[in-house]
Specification:
heterodimer, A: 203 residues, alpha/beta, Rossmann fold, 2 domains, six-stranded mixed beta sheet, three-stranded antiparallel beta sheet, 6 helices, 9 strands, B: 442 residues, abc type-2 transporter like fold, 3 domains, four-stranded mixed beta sheet, two-stranded antiparallel ribbon, 69% helix, 8% strand
Chain lengths: 203, 442
């Protein structure tokens, strides 16, 4: 996946200055920076969730995106959400794929609206939906923010497994301990990639 | 399965799981039908009219030798209005308070004048300023017309008795005086016994002419009294409650309200749920997303439209009224509802995209829907600008299409024109919604 001078502006506000980024097979990249640094914007542009104001993104693989805020339909159960997104992803056997994800992420199988799930369960559902299309590139926006240590470990196991299979992972975080999962760290500040040490941007 | 269909199916599932919203959707047509019924009940209820009898009318009066059952005439009037017998002061007070919409007074001496057959007695009608006053005035005019019709027969008979007296002679009675009349026939006999002179011959000629002329008096009097008579045939036509206008407006208001709200809320909800980002990653195009919301509005609109049409149809069947095509035109009407709901749904999707938040979208939709409806209600002659604006909104076209589909004997011309309008308006709103939806994930 390659981003060529992608930028995003909201009126006069520049959320992301023109940025280049390349994700290679078998690597994990961490986007680090304080709030408002442009990490989520860059990931959303890479995922195709928002259009860049300028620049372009080239992708040669299926992409999975875990947005910072869980994105699923609150009135549908976890299973229904998974089945729906599996169908939209064009997955063969959406019911089977959904059942697999429910088991893999230990999600409740009851027909309970997903809005009523715990924060941790919602975040795991968020990750599970992103993996439905069997992506080769996984974009994670602070994926472990609401998870307990066990659940965090499970998420990183998924990411590490994908990388080990030749996929690529790019994640945004403010948790400096998670940088150890990355082979490369990109530091952002005020919407720009900066050549600073991680500790410097967090003051 | 297409992405739009998957989103539509999801929205329907979400809708069915929203008990409050679903309840409102089911209750809405029922509430509309009840409200229309209440309004109609008020409109068709009998106005209360005070009957002030200051002449103590008997139930039967005799005029020119004819007996009239006044009570029967009053009972006939009571089929149209509720007559309440009151004293003059009480009637005046109730009229001032609005408890009665009119007072009809029989003044003292009414019967005496009537019995003379030479003086026209007066009934005094006083009405309030309410909306029912013109209706009551018309009904009282009809009452006087009915009374006059019955009295005319008696008056003519009485007048003809005098004519017969003039023709054949005899004893008569008028204004309390008795008299003896020679009569033209007897005059002619008397003249025949007189010596034949030129003057007698002239008088005989006059008498002859007068007898011929007076013999035609009966027909002439009847024709003069009733130059044109009205023959009334009873039918079971529709009341205004079941009229084309009420039914068309009922469906159009319901469809406009719900389609706009539903499409606006469902579109904005994609942002509220955070799912728009996922969908935009190539899973669903913006065109498919807008189409799914339009389809949702159209589908729900058709179901609710059908519910209202069925309620109206059942009322029409049970009431045994005629006019319109409650069942035969159902497919045409539902096609119109589908089109109108889709056009309104496209406008709703635009609102939802611009509002970007379900709560704001719903509020804006409610605020927008009322002016849209009222603009469609303003007659062209009343305020031309409102008419021209409503021309570019779906409501007025939907009303005309529904009315034509249900009641016109040849609906195709109107249906085609309004369908083209709705298609055009819907297409414009769809394009605008498609453009507006780009801001949803921004």
């Amino acid at each position: 996946m390659r981003a060529l001078r992608v930028a995003r502006r909201y009126g006069d506000v520049e959320a992301l200055a023109p940025t280049d980024l390349e994700l290679l097979s078998g690597e994990t990249v961490a986007l680090v920076g304080p709030n408002g640094a442009g990490k989520s914007t860059l990931l959303a542009i890479l995922a195709g969730a928002i259009e860049p104001s300028e620049g372009s993104v080239e992708t040669h693989a299926r992409v999975g995106w875990v947005p910072q805020r869980p994105a699923h339909y609150g009135r549908l159960s976890a299973r229904e959400n998974l089945e729906l997104f599996a169908q939209l992803e064009g997955v063969r056997g959406p019911a089977h794929a959904a059942a697999q994800m429910l088991e893999r992420f230990a999600l409740p199988t009851a027909a309970r609206p997903s809005a009523e799930l715990s924060v941790g369960n919602r975040q795991r559902l968020n990750v599970a939906i992103a993996l439905l299309g069997e992506p080769r590139v996984l974009l994670l926006d602070e994926p472990t923010a609401a998870l307990d240590p066990g659940q965090r470990r499970r998420v990183w196991e998924v990411a590490d497994a994908l990388r080990a299979e030749g996929g690529a992972v790019c994640f945004a975080t403010q948790n400096l301990e998670e940088i150890e999962h990355a082979g490369r760290v990109i530091v952002l500040q005020d919407g720009r990639v900066v050549s600073l040490a991680v500790e410097e941007v967090f003051g | 399965m297409t992405a739009a269909w998957l989103i539509l199916r999801k929205d329907l599932r979400v809708l069915l799981r929203s008990p409050l919203l679903l309840g409102a959707l089911v209750a809405y047509p029922v509430v509309i039908a009840i409200l229309v019924g209440l309004v109609a009940g008020y409109a068709s209820s009998k106005p209360r009219v005070a009957f002030v009898d200051e002449d103590n009318l008997p139930s039967v009066v005799s005029v020119a030798g004819h007996r009239f059952h006044l009570q029967t005439v009053i009972d006939d009037v009571a089929k149209q209005v509720t007559l309440v017998r009151l004293g003059p002061a009480e009637a005046a007070r109730e009229l001032a308070d609005g408890k009665v919409v009119a007072t009809i007074t029989v003044p003292p001496g009414f019967l005496g004048d009537l019995e003379t057959t030479v003086v026209s007695p007066h009934l005094v009608l006083k009405t309030g300023s309410g909306g029912l006053a013109p209706r009551v005035t018309q009904q009282m005019q009809a009452l006087v017309y009915q009374l006059n019709q019955q009295l005319q027969a008696g008056y003519i008979t009485a007048n003809l008795e005098f004519v017969q007296l003039l023709l054949h002679g005899g004893k008569g009675h008028f204004l309390g005086r008795n008299f003896d009349v020679l009569g033209l026939a007897r005059t002619q006999q008397e003249l025949a016994q007189m010596p034949s002179t030129e003057r007698v011959a002239a008088i005989e000629h006059f008498v002859q002419q007068a007898r011929v002329g007076l013999a035609q008096t009966g027909s002439a009097l009847r024709a003069t009294a009733n130059p044109i008579s009205l023959t009334q045939a009873k039918s079971h036509g529709r009341t205004w409650l079941l009229s084309a206008q009420v039914q068309s407006y009922g469906i159009a208001v319901t469809v406009t309200f719900l389609a706009l709200l539903l499409a606006a809320g469902a579109t904005a909800a994609e942002r509220d749920e955070g799912t728009i980002g996922r969908l935009r990653r190539g899973l669903v195009s913006l065109g498919e997303l807008v189409s799914a919301k339009v389809a949702l509005a159209a589908l729900v609109g058709v179901v609710l439209g059908l519910a209202i049409v069925v309620v109206f149809g059942i009322v029409v069947e049970v009431g045994g009224v005629t006019g319109g095509e409650p069942w035969a035109r159902l497919p045409l009407l539902l096609a119109g509802v589908l089109l109108a709901a889709a056009a309104v749904g496209a406008a709703g999707a635009l609102l939802g995209a611009l509002a970007r938040e379900a709560r704001t979208a719903s509020l804006v939709a409610v605020l927008v829907v009322l002016p849209v409806v009222f603009l469609g209600l303003v007659p062209r002659g009343a305020f031309a600008a409102a008419y021209w604006i409503s021309l570019f909104l779906p409501f007025a076209h939907a009303v005309r299409l529904f009315g034509a589909a249900l009641y016109d004997s040849s609906p195709w011309h109107t249906v085609a024109i309004e369908a083209v309008w709705l298609l055009g308006i819907g297409a414009v709103f769809w394009v605008l919604a498609r453009l507006g939806a780009r801001t949803l994930s921004a």
